[in-house]
């Protein structure tokens, strides 16, 4: 659970990061920046700020904002009844993001799993993305990512996004952020 | 036909416009900016500069650069054997772009068709896009667009791009740019 103040503060930080990356948002988009704590209530460690530009039955495009060392927990996008599962390309716009995917584990990875992550980080093939660099992830491939010390802004180009069908390695994770009155 | 110098000059102008919009490209992407004259040899009037980030069987993402008053000629993306035809979202990043689509004609449109365009501009419902604004075009809908006096940078999020299947209103248009030695 996050408080309204935590959500509002994260929105403001994300808006500043996007502006710093030269990305212009409409006022309604700024007000609707999604703040996801993945149900773990440790937003600064495990979380993500998201702007959804478009999400039709075929195409989705988003901006993702990660605060310094903030982590998106490990998950995959499984095949669905009517599609092969989400395919996504991450393109770094500012900062640095370390993406971990299935494959040969990197011997000295740049990231450690967040302490509050419950140890649910099983893939360790590291792909470092700096501005102008990108990586495409096939459907059903496990992945997680963490920003470097300065945070990161990452564009995501993908097939339809159906967040509620994502499969997280950490069974505690919930994709819906609960906001309390605190 | 364009000369090598014209193509190189257009690439440099496009790179400057992208940098001005805060968009970072990898060196290989800068060197590969596509310069399209649509076979009409009037690049400054009818043309487009394109960076393709990704184009898989399902998803495509590009940046489009338009020079001041440069026009992308009218066309549509028809249904294909294995898909419903290309669906695309245009999002303005810098400058202004005027998008014309099927629908109620706008009484005082902001653009005139380019003189070298052969009169092949038949849809006049105007959608003005400034930074942070976007519009989604369904498959098979006729459209064309022109930048304002300062040019424009536009992100395109779409299904697979199969340029050679596009249907242009002007039968003279060819999607492949021929570069001569001149």
How would you characterize the overall build of this protein?
2 copies of one chain form a homodimer. By secondary structure, chain A is mostly beta strands. Helices cover 12% and strands 38% of the residues of chain A. Chain A contains 2 helices and 11 strands. Chain A has helices at 4-20, 27-31; strands spanning 2-3, 34-36, 48-55, 60-66, 71-76, 88-101, 125-129, 134-137, 143-158, 167-168, 179-180. In chain A, strands 2, 3, 4, 5, 6, 7, 8, 9 and 10 form a 9-stranded antiparallel beta sheet that branches. In chain A, strands 1-11 form a two-stranded parallel ribbon. The model of chain A has no long low-confidence stretch (mean pLDDT 95). The interface between A and B is medium-sized, with 29 and 29 residues.
Segments of chain A where pLDDT lies below 50 for 5+ residues? Answer: none
Q: Beta-sheet strand percentage of chain A? A: 35-45%
Helix and strand pattern of chain A: EHHEEEEEEEEEE
Q: Name the overall outline of chain A.
A: globular
Average residue pLDDT of chain A:
95
Question: In angstroms, what is the radius of gyration of chain A?
Answer: 15 Å
User: What structural category arises from helix and sheet content of chain A?
Assistant: mainly beta
Number of strands of chain A: 11
Alpha carbon gap, first and last residue of chain A: 10 Å
Helix content of chain A: 10-25%
Q: Which protein chains make the most extensive interface, counting residues with beta carbons within 8 Å of the other chain's beta carbons?
A: A-B, 29 and 29 residues
Figure out the total of helices of chain A.
2
Biggest sheet details of chain A: 9 strands, antiparallel
Oligomeric description of these chains: homodimer
